[in-house]
From TrEMBL, chains A, B:
<keyword id="KW-0521">NADP</keyword>
<feature type="domain" description="MTHFR SAM-binding regulatory">
    <location>
        <begin position="346"/>
        <end position="646"/>
    </location>
</feature>
<keyword id="KW-0021">Allosteric enzyme</keyword>
<comment type="function">
    <text>Catalyzes the conversion of 5,10-methylenetetrahydrofolate to 5-methyltetrahydrofolate, a cosubstrate for homocysteine remethylation to methionine. Represents a key regulatory connection between the folate and methionine cycles.</text>
</comment>
<dbReference type="InterPro" id="IPR029041">
    <property type="entry name" value="FAD-linked_oxidoreductase-like"/>
</dbReference>
<dbReference type="Pfam" id="PF02219">
    <property type="entry name" value="MTHFR"/>
</dbReference>
<comment type="subunit">
    <text>Homodimer.</text>
</comment>
<dbReference type="GO" id="GO:0005829">
    <property type="term" value="C:cytosol"/>
</dbReference>
<dbReference type="GO" id="GO:0071949">
    <property type="term" value="F:FAD binding"/>
</dbReference>
<keyword id="KW-0597">Phosphoprotein</keyword>
<feature type="compositionally biased region" description="Low complexity">
    <location>
        <begin position="10"/>
        <end position="26"/>
    </location>
</feature>
<dbReference type="InterPro" id="IPR003171">
    <property type="entry name" value="Mehydrof_redctse-like"/>
</dbReference>
<dbReference type="GO" id="GO:0106313">
    <property type="term" value="F:methylenetetrahydrofolate reductase (NADPH) activity"/>
</dbReference>
<dbReference type="GO" id="GO:0035999">
    <property type="term" value="P:tetrahydrofolate interconversion"/>
</dbReference>
<keyword id="KW-0274">FAD</keyword>
<comment type="similarity">
    <text>Belongs to the methylenetetrahydrofolate reductase family.</text>
</comment>
<dbReference type="InterPro" id="IPR004621">
    <property type="entry name" value="Fadh2_euk"/>
</dbReference>
Amino acid sequence: MVNETQHTCSASSSSRSDGGSSSGSESSKDNSRCSTPVLDADRHERLREKMRRRQDAGDKWFSLEFFPPRTANAAVNLISRFDRMGAGGPLFIDVTWHPAGDPGSDKETSSMIIANTAVNYCGLETILHMTCCHQTKDEITGHLQKAKRLGLKNIMALRGDPVGEEWEEEVDGFNHAVDLVKHIRNEFDDYFDICVAGYPKGHPEAESYEADLRHLKEKVFAGADFIISQLFFRPETFLKFMKDCQAIGITCPIIPGIFPIQGYHSLRQLVKLSKLEVPQEIKDVIEPIKDNDAAIRNYGVELAVSMCRELLDSGVVHGLHFYTLNREVATTEVLKRLGLWNEDPRRPLPWAVSAHPKRRVEDVRPIFWASRPKSYIYRTQEWDDFPNGRWGNSSSPAFGELKDYYLFYLKSKSPREELLKMWGEELTGEESVFEVFTCYITGEPNRNGYKVTCMPWNDDPLATETNLLKDQLEKVNRRGILTINSQPNINGKPSTDPIVGWGPSGGYVFQKAYLEFFTSSEIVTALLKVLKKYELRVNYHIVNVQGQNITNAPDLQPNAVTWGIFPGREIIQPTVVDPVSFLSWKDEAFALWIEQWAKLYEEESPSRMIIQYIHDNYYLVNLVDNDFPLENCLWQVVEDTFELLNSPTQQ
Amino acid sequence: MVNETQHTCSASSSSRSDGGSSSGSESSKDNSRCSTPVLDADRHERLREKMRRRQDAGDKWFSLEFFPPRTANAAVNLISRFDRMGAGGPLFIDVTWHPAGDPGSDKETSSMIIANTAVNYCGLETILHMTCCHQTKDEITGHLQKAKRLGLKNIMALRGDPVGEEWEEEVDGFNHAVDLVKHIRNEFDDYFDICVAGYPKGHPEAESYEADLRHLKEKVFAGADFIISQLFFRPETFLKFMKDCQAIGITCPIIPGIFPIQGYHSLRQLVKLSKLEVPQEIKDVIEPIKDNDAAIRNYGVELAVSMCRELLDSGVVHGLHFYTLNREVATTEVLKRLGLWNEDPRRPLPWAVSAHPKRRVEDVRPIFWASRPKSYIYRTQEWDDFPNGRWGNSSSPAFGELKDYYLFYLKSKSPREELLKMWGEELTGEESVFEVFTCYITGEPNRNGYKVTCMPWNDDPLATETNLLKDQLEKVNRRGILTINSQPNINGKPSTDPIVGWGPSGGYVFQKAYLEFFTSSEIVTALLKVLKKYELRVNYHIVNVQGQNITNAPDLQPNAVTWGIFPGREIIQPTVVDPVSFLSWKDEAFALWIEQWAKLYEEESPSRMIIQYIHDNYYLVNLVDNDFPLENCLWQVVEDTFELLNSPTQQ
């Protein structure tokens, strides 16, 4: 009874404090004076609350299960998949615990690191699986502490499979998932949301279906927040299971696990592992087409859609959990057919937010990392508090060093051979570099017929927004203004604008025009003369790799270049040009020439020396046109610069 | 090599932090994340730095001396004078120490409280005089501590006049101004800027002119930052004095004290006190016109202008200090003739900033106190940190109680008889109240022929900006929408706009339309029906005196209603509609009905009961139109409300 009251208490108090803050430091007086305008309730809710809110609102949702990859390259691909499938709007994803793969380690393929990447770098609500058998309490606690440190907030508590054939209980060990649930609640109180597994047909090792239901109830009463079911083949299996659960007093959400059949072999393997029996009607369809992958997948999609519809129509199912097998096509297809795939073009902020709890008030970033958000997150991962409302004139934002350019979530998705094809097997001079930049902007194939779909400073094709500036960008890149970041000026477009909009609806978004590029010292000299004419209208920062720094920024204050005005809210200014951070970015931007481009070539090769020359001699320039309601003057600045260079009297 | 790079980094960052902040608490990590964009360098500089900067820039400046008033009513008038003369742009004002008037006490006429008012409520850089003779060290320290606590940053250190005829040095006491200078530096280090007096003709009690110069040098070497001179009648007197000072090694600024002759008697009295001799050429002019005040003042102005011109033309004088005798006309005239009176229409923020050092980062306030800024400052005087950048969703901003509505700096400038003429000797019903509001808006005389130039919620005539809304306001007040605060919507006017502009030049200012009024519950009922139609476009808060609170504000978040975008800076949003503060304001706004209006009438009188009825039954409403780029819809909301009220089906 005491325990029950405590539970109620902590539940209600947690629902309050979670809305605002979790750590002591956040609720301090100082912070309350400049806290976030809670743009996005999602950022402040825990998973079980999101689930409840969606259910209360009658919103159906889905979630996606992945397993850790085997190789570093597969990890790079999986992260891209997280980004792509994350766009469909899963309520959460989960990452399985792979005991054989050193799951709690810092390896780039470990369960822990994959889940960490999903939360911090892809901004996804994530559940990390954890199994407990064959592990000591200290090991488990260590894993949980690490998960908490990394910003993981949800654990799927599992027993795990015994290693040998014989199952033997360990004295004082963790023998059942319920032991893990209790341990988490004992050691971490209410910090984690806990999920447990339910078996619609009963666990294969359980004495009986009824006995297994009682085990499940134990897990819930030990503190689990919701249940995800093992896969099943018939909707009535799950609906009966749900009813039986309720009958014995299990009231938490129970989410059906959906397994779209994607191929003959994967089905066989899964059935073997889960010890489930495939119903005869399914076998009858599959056997004759077992060598036709496409046919099986189509059938699997069909089957899953019809089962999901039945579940949703029952009125008792509010969310669907998909066993993706790390594949995209079938699950995405099912979700689209169900109308659950929801590519919401609305963004809470112009950049993708991270899901680490300590970053949930973050709403200002320097613009420089716009195309390298994962690098920004990596370099600021040690920060304890994040800018909220204002960037401020902090004297030295401590950016972590970015030494390992091959960190798997920062690594280019393209292999070396492909990069060489895009960026040139052999460079003949600075002009061949201009050409690469130009092809990236225009989307035209380069002289060898290859499209340039990424650059060292941008691993993705040109943003839709940048497309607005395409013609101008092409012109200047051809002439050696090598652009790596830009945005048009925007004078109050609706926040729902499909290209430049962000934030809640009913608001207005604004931008100052921004242009960032590498260019030669000759051009910089002319540019500086031209900029005098523009006085305070254009703020500039011009640096070279040695750190020579020329600027007209007043008092080294940050310049807000993107902001939004919303109904009933304070003003949000999510991107700034911060002169101090620019010096950290400068190091990264220059290093990318060498790390990602020059190193594609042999040492001492002419190609490598060309890139090295640019690295050593070019300047990195950023320009802001402060007069956002007027026509962007930055193109005129560049035009004037070339005119000055070409005028014989100025030579 | 690695270290060298780091070194370059930190060097460049330290040059920043100098510009940014001076006190220890401001450089803390939390604050650095949301510190002020230093809109106004003035707010961060100490007086001696401002003086140096003006001198370096070749800007001439002036300052004004006042003495504490004798009565509370005179204090009210002096504060208005501070506001009016402050508009001319003095570098500082100073308040003399009046030993007979209990100068360090909390009396509303004390030197300390008058200086406190100038700093905190009028936002003026202020020097408090302090004399030391006949006082113990502890008394002096107590005064200085109090001055510091009140936000005073500058002291004029004086000996003071001996009480009797005989001057007797006290052992271990403060016998000379230099003792006070030393004491301030010993006890308060560099906290205060210290000013001392210089005597162009030598102090009357000094053994000699040369001996007096040596005393002056002692005072400077003991830590004084600059010198203000005693009055004199001929420019050459001062210029010689300056030269003599420099000759013996006094290098700090020396500011000539200018005394515009304003009348025969005041001249005689001053001459008696200062033991100065009036030159014969001046006596010759004055004696014949001694009964013609206007003639003497004109002559005095003429004389002062010509002397000031000569001083400024000398090239060694950069600022002029005026002995105003608490009068406006002559000094203002001299300053205007000299071209030094500089009514800068540009405001650093839309509201007048306070000069207390702890408020120097403050840049956000709730809009409610727009017409009662002194009340806002009073009620927030105990705050330790002030909102900067964001108001934040602080759950309970602790506003001090405003119990004493007769605090002299909050008191109406008009006496009871005048208020009765404006607001009605006898009210006949709610309509007579509507009439008072309407007359205040239109500027037309009321039925008894008196103009209504102030209201309980606004002690000054209608703001220029509000005039933009005059016709609409008139219409609604006539019908019982009793407006007390409003602003039009502004969609990006230049920051230099003479009416709505503020902040540095080159920026753009914005506003959401705002309307705040008292009205009957009948109108509120109809209004609420109408507001449904406007959904999120209009945010509203509707409260009555009992605290019934109806709102559609999301999560009780503040709504920014005034903001500005400036070159090279973060965004400033100086006014917000904060739902939580509104409840504190509500208490004040309702209380003003009783304290300032109802109490003009006898208890139980019909007039008093009418005001009491309104106080008890009306609602206070505020409306924000979030769609600032569109035409203000709030008038339509009111129009729709009256239409609904008049439609027979809805009655």
